[in-house]
Specification:
By secondary structure, this protein is mostly beta strands. Strand 6 and strand 7 form a beta hairpin. It is globular.
Length: about 160
């Protein structure tokens, strides 16, 4: 039996990003591809939508300090939500904004280029928040406090 087309598996944020995740830059809306002919005819630019939820997509670039390879340290997340996600407030003294994703899911996706084949993971989440400060027992909790958005990230794993 094959897996359903849009099968997603639940994962824990702390397992997927053990050293956290940091927003680099801004969150921007994604648009559908527009050909030169469409541009010449002044056709309106349409926002891209998530195939499962039907919500508009937004994109941001994040840094993953736990990535083993340099090419995997920069992660692009796609957010599927009704409104553009608002990142957490900047932390004084840090060039990046630390974030926590809640309700994460992953889905494997096969990629090919000529004879080369590899596995790509598409990760999504239901929210993006600021990490909480240390908990009462002195350990970093990293639990989200608020937000309602979805995210999508793609990373490669050798096959």
């Amino acid at each position: 039996m094959g897996a359903p087309k849009y099968a997603r598996f639940s994962v824990d944020f702390d397992e997927w990003f053990p050293q956290g995740l940091y927003l680099v830059g801004e969150i921007t809306p994604m648009t559908e591809y527009q050909s030169q002919e469409d541009k010449a005819r002044n056709r309106p630019i349409r926002p891209r939508v998530d195939e499962v939820t039907g919500r508009p997509l937004f994109r941001g670039t994040f840094a993953d300090p736990s990535a083993e390879k340099d090419r995997e340290k920069s992660v692009t997340l796609e957010f599927a939500c009704a409104h553009q996600p608002v990142p957490p407030a900047a932390v004084a003294g840090l060039p990046f904004r630390p974030v926590v994703l809640e309700g994460m899911t992953v889905a494997p996706r096969a990629e090919t280029s000529g004879q080369a084949k590899w596995l790509t993971w598409t990760s999504r989440a239901t929210g993006m928040t600021a990490p909480s400060s240390a908990s009462a027992d002195g350990t970093a909790a990293g639990k989200p406090t608020s937000s309602r958005s979805s995210a999508d990230t793609t990373g490669r794993a050798a096959a």
